[in-house]
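Side project, low priority. Logging it here so it doesn't get lost.
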Amino acid sequence: MNITMEEKKQEALARMKVLDLHKNIIKEFDKENIVNMSEHGYLYWLTDEQKQYVSEFEEEYNALVYHVIHDYTEVGEMLTFLFVSDYKEEWEMDREDLQSGIVCAYVKNLSVDWCSEFGSVGIKPQYGGLLRTA
């Protein structure tokens, strides 16, 4: 595809506003390309290891990650990557889903890597960050 990273970034900023993420992390992403992470709705910066996972994902799928949700579940420790894909024709549908509390994401299972996958997850805003609901 011929979608530039700047186009993806503008789409990511629009999605972050729809998700009602805290204005400071939207500003950090816009001005400094800093991706933040939510854990139980609270906001954190990514560790170097988590940044590496994001970079690897972005490179492999030519995507732009704009937020990460960190969870511990029965099947392992998870990083949920919210991203803008290289498929512009899907963006409008992605935005509509966001308004319903659903996002297409990549979930990296840090405990059992082969269980990592793309899929739809439920989310809701909390404390300026996001909480994964399903």
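Brief comment: Residues 5-132 form one domain.
Revisit when time allows.
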